Amino acid sequence: MKILETPLIATIRENHALEHATIHVLTQRNPYLHLVGRTTPRGFLIYGEVETELVAEAASEALARLQGGERGLAVHPRCGTNIATAGVLAGLSAFAVTSVRSKSRLARLPQILLATTAAIIVAQPLGLALQERLTTSPRVERVRIEKITRQVMGKITAHRVDLGRE
Asked: How many CB atoms are closer than 10 A to CB 53?
């Protein structure tokens, strides 16, 4: 069995896809929403000021659309995978440039800036590809929404979306 097909990893990848799809649906309805999502083994959380009924409607629509074949909803441009990819590539490129000891660090600054900028540009499509192939799975045929709970922690509102499998 491949690691991406192990039960825990497969579940997290499916939950991650539905989290992204739910955020896509919510922001398609209201592009001014500021939302953050976080996937868990039990489902996902949506942080932001949005009504519980809207989260429930969006999650149901997102699940139906993923099940209907809209695989692109599983990938989101502001996913942490993209941020991590950019950080790793920028760090590696800066390390590669600074490991050459022929010049002073200040003299290497233009090369460092060029290398890290190029890395961040490359990271954009690479992060999306990593989401598509590794960190999300739009195969959510067996997924069902079990419960949505609103939680308020000071000024932060979150919705916990608990998922189950048939």
From this structure: 9
Helices (H), 30-157: 52-67, 80-98, 105-130
| CA neighbor of 11 nearest in space, from 129, 128, 146, 142 | 142
3-75+136-165 CATH fold: Threonyl-tRNA Synthetase; Chain A, domain 2 (3.30.980)
How far, in Å, CA of 9 to CA of 11, rounded?
A: 5
Which residues face 161 on adjacent strands? Answer: 44, 148
**Phi and psi torsions of 6, nearest 5°:** -65, 150
Query: How many CA atoms does the CB half-sphere of 147 hold within 13 Å?
Result: 4
pLDDT in tens, 143-161: 999 999 999 999 999 999 9
**Per-residue pLDDT reduced to its tens digit, 49-86:** 999 999 999 999 999 999 999 999 999 999 999 999 99
Secondary structure of residue 26 in the 3-state scheme: helix
Q: How far is CA 17 from CA 83, 103, 129, 147, 154, in A?
A: 17, 46, 13, 17, 28
